[in-house]
Amino acid sequence: MRSLGSKSNRSWFWPLLLTVAISVASGRSKIATPGLFQFDKAAHFLVFGLLATLVVRLGEGRRAAWLALLVVSLYGMADEWHQSFTPGRSVELADWMADTAGAALAVMLYACWPRYRAQLETPLGRKARVENPGANAPSSV
């Protein structure tokens, strides 16, 4: 069984890039968002769900799933603390709860739904060939 650190360093690129993007956004006083009610919580839920998916894919098994959830939840807490130093921003327990809920759902889906996990782990080029096997065949016309 692999732990979170067992894949190549290249595998950490996307989760690290997303954490940098989150940190940059948290450090801004104003963030452009649609005028939808409570869009903020949905954005937290979705972004941290994506982050958790990227992190849980780095390992295998229950230990990796729990570790991914813990790491992403703690990062959400640190992100809220980071916002406390940004003028015009505030710390909200509800934001951290949305972060953790998004991470929990993402990790649960990845760990408990083999078809979903297989879909995420299938290389893009292979998906196209499997979904449309005759697409790359030469035409007889």
TrEMBL record:
Classification via InterPro entries: VanZ-like (IPR006976)
Any Pfam family: VanZ
Keyword Membrane applies: yes
Coiled coil: none
Residues annotated as transmembrane: 43-59, 64-81, 93-113
Keywords: Membrane, Transmembrane, Transmembrane helix
Domain VanZ-like: 34-112
NCBIfam families on file: vanZ_1
PANTHER family, sorted: DOMAIN PROTEIN, PUTATIVE (AFU_ORTHOLOGUE AFUA_3G10980)-RELATED
Protein name in UniProt: VanZ family protein
Species for this entry: Opitutus terrae (strain DSM 11246 / JCM 15787 / PB90-1)
Source lineage: Bacteria, Pseudomonadati, Verrucomicrobiota, Opitutia, Opitutales
